[in-house]
Amino acid sequence: MSFYDELQTATGPDRNAFLSIPLIQSTVQKGASRELYIDFLTQAYHHVKHTYPLLALASVHTQDEAYQDALIEYMKEERGHEKWILDDIRTMGGDAEAARMGKPGQACRIMVGYTYYAVEWISPYAMLGSVHVLEGMSTMLADEAANAIQASRAVPVKDGFSYLRSHGALDIEHVAFFKGLVNEITADAHAIIIDTSKIIYRLYGDIFRELAIRHPGRRDAA
After folding, report:
1. Per residue in 60-80, pLDDT tens?
2. How far apart are CA 1 and CA 17, in angstroms?
3. N or C: which end of the chain has fewer CB within 10 A?
4. Helix count (H) and strand count (E) of the chain?
5. Cα–Cα distances in angstroms (integers) from residue 213 to residues 10, 36, 92, 185, 206, in the given order
6. pLDDT at 144
7. What is the SS3 assignment for 62?
8. What is the distance between the alpha carbons of residues 116 and 121, in angstroms, rounded to a whole number?
9. Average pLDDT of the chain?
């Protein structure tokens, strides 16, 4: 069994728990209100803007040159993606500047803060646990969620969904890249990647649980 397959198996219960979050199921099936979608984009902006710095931090803290090369390549792909999110907020009629200058929810801050801690103080390989969850879930859910939200709001397909749609397609390539990368990672980092993935599944899920609390009864509103 490859390490990627081992990672998928070890994190299966955590992935299933994430996918069973009521807000995620409801959004994929029925769409979401404009207010909920903009709030989701705002939280996404505040964690996506840290992807590039976190990748850079991991590259500084590792002596594994192959891993460094992969991180640098990935940094080129990820740089500036948060700007797409601000464009989507603007297109949906939200205040992109307020989102940029504002504070994310507590759950988002905790997830980002833990990732910085894990990369700097546990292992630079911990970044791969975060990537495994965030990009894996983007590939699995992004296009499906965008279709449902678009249908529930009766808006043109591309308006306000550039972040979701681009990541639905783009992250398929990233997951393939990730799969090849982790299968070459030294065995002593495997437990760290699995453990970080499990934690990020929980912390990323908390963002959606928090969104549900802030938007009770609005998941199906147009």
Report:
1. 999 999 999 999 998 988 887
2. 24
3. N
4. 12, 0
5. 30, 11, 22, 39, 11
6. 74
7. coil
8. 8
9. 88
- pTM for the full predicted model: 0.91
Residues 178/131, Cβ–Cβ less than 8 Å: yes
Q: Which residues contact 7 (CB under 8 A, 6 or more apart)?
A: 132, 182, 190, 193, 194, 197
Nearest to 123 by CA among 202, 191, 72: 191
Could you tell me the two tokens for 112? 């980002």
Tokens of 95: 């205040």
> Mapping DSSP to helix (H, G, I), strand (E, B) and coil, where does residue 141 land?
helix
Q: Which residues contact 183 (CB under 8 A, 6 or more apart)?
A: 2, 3, 4
**Nearest of 7, 117, 158, 134 to residue 74 by alpha carbon:** 134
pLDDT confidence of residue 160: 79
